[in-house]
């Protein structure tokens, strides 16, 4: 059974939360469908589709619904989930700044209790809710509230996305330390090459070695699992449906071969749905 929900945060904005979340959603949904099809074939029943994964971006800033650069758009097309873009993002603001500020600039301040109620309602629906924050854990979200407060209020464990290169060790250890101080469970870290600028560059032996060394230091000094290291693999925001499907296939294959997925499953505490 997948966990009820996971909060995907990052060591910074632009580290690849959206890209990794979209790929994870596509992969976990496919694995859920494959498992169900196998069980149903074994029981001689017809296969039926179910939502094993759902996506939520509580607040996006620097975006407009329907624009290919919006996180909601990239989450939808990158995952291929059967959701509507407007259902993925609860609030969308134009200003490319922290949600608290973007909402104020739009004259529509965010109410933390409404965000929590929205999250609780979504968690009650079937499937694992993958929640993408904006920026990192301490980004201002609502009056007196930061991104970490939403994860804490919803009792969601964290997945931390971080860069692969120099500087990531400090940023990641700071994020882990703050999360634990705030009482948040950290499932693990994924190092994602969001900066190389070319597929080949990320395969350079020195870059690969640095990512591996960084992963080791993060595990040793942060006492936290690094679940995988993902290479540079650019999306094409302007792709058509077939283009997105082809990208998903490549990106999910990369995630499946590079990331330990065990921590996303909870065999003990979940109610049985099948
Ligand atoms: N593995 C990767 N290969 C190539 N490009 C990547 C990769 N990961 C991320 N990118 C690109 O880097 C940019 C930043 O990534 P992304 O938007 O996913 O970051 P984010 O952490 O979600 O940021 P935000 O805080 O704005 O939500 C995007 O243009 C994205 O397509
Ligand atoms: C505009 C960015 N892309 C992002 C908000 C990042 C806020 C970062 C604030 C900070 O840490 O200085 N918005 C979002 O993820 O919807
Ligand atoms: Mg994002």
Automatic annotation (TrEMBL):
Any one of the GO CC terms: cytosol
Cofactor(s) listed: Mg(2+)
InterPro entries xref list: DTB_synth_BioD, P-loop_NTPase
Binding site for substrate: 61
The entry's keywords: ATP-binding, Biotin biosynthesis, Cytoplasm, Ligase, Magnesium, Metal-binding, Nucleotide-binding
Pfam families: AAA_26
MF (Gene Ontology): ATP binding; dethiobiotin synthase activity; magnesium ion binding
Annotated transmembrane regions: none
Gene3D superfamilies with a match to the protein in the record: P-loop containing nucleotide triphosphate hydrolases (3.40.50.300)
GO biological process, one term: biotin biosynthetic process
Presence of keyword Iron-sulfur: no
EC numbers, comma separated: 6.3.3.3
Biological pathway: Cofactor biosynthesis; biotin biosynthesis; biotin from 7,8-diaminononanoate: step 1/2
Name by which UniProt lists this protein: ATP-dependent dethiobiotin synthetase BioD
Taxonomic source organism: Paenibacillus psychroresistens
Upper taxonomic lineage: Bacteria, Bacillati, Bacillota, Bacilli, Bacillales
Gene of this entry: bioD
């Amino acid at each position: 059974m997948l966990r009820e929900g996971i909060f995907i945060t990052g060591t910074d904005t632009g580290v690849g939360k959206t890209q990794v979340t979209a790929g994870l959603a596509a992969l976990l949904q496919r694995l859920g469908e494959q498992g169900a099809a196998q069980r149903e074939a074994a029981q001689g029943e017809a296969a039926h589709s179910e939502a094993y994964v759902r996506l939520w971006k509580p607040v996006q800033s620097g975006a407009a619904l329907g624009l290919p650069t919006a996180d909601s758009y990239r989450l939808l097309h990158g995952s291929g989930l059967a959701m509507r873009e407007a259902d993925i993002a609860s609030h969308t603001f134009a200003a490319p700044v922290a949600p608290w500020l973007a909402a104020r600039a739009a004259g529509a301040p965010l109410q933390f209790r409404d965000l929590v109620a929205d999250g609780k309602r979504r968690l009650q629906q079937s499937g694992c809710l993958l929640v993408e924050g904006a920026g990192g854990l301490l980004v201002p979200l609502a009056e007196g509230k930061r991104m970490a407060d939403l994860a804490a209020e919803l009792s969601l464990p964290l997945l931390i996305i971080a860069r692969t290169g120099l500087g990531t060790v400090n940023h990641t250890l700071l994020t882990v330390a703050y999360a634990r101080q705030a009482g948040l469970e950290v499932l693990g870290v994924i190092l994602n090459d969001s900066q190389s600028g070319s597929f080949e560059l990320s395969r350079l032996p020195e870059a690969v070695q640095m990512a591996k060394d960084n992963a080791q230091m993060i595990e040793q000094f942060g006492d936290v699992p690094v679940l995988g290291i993902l290479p540079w693999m650019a999306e094409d925001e302007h792709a058509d449906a077939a283009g997105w499907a082809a990208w998903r296939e490549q990106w999910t294959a990369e995630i499946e071969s590079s990331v330990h997925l065990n921590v996303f499953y909870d065999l003990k505490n979940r109610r049985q749905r099948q």
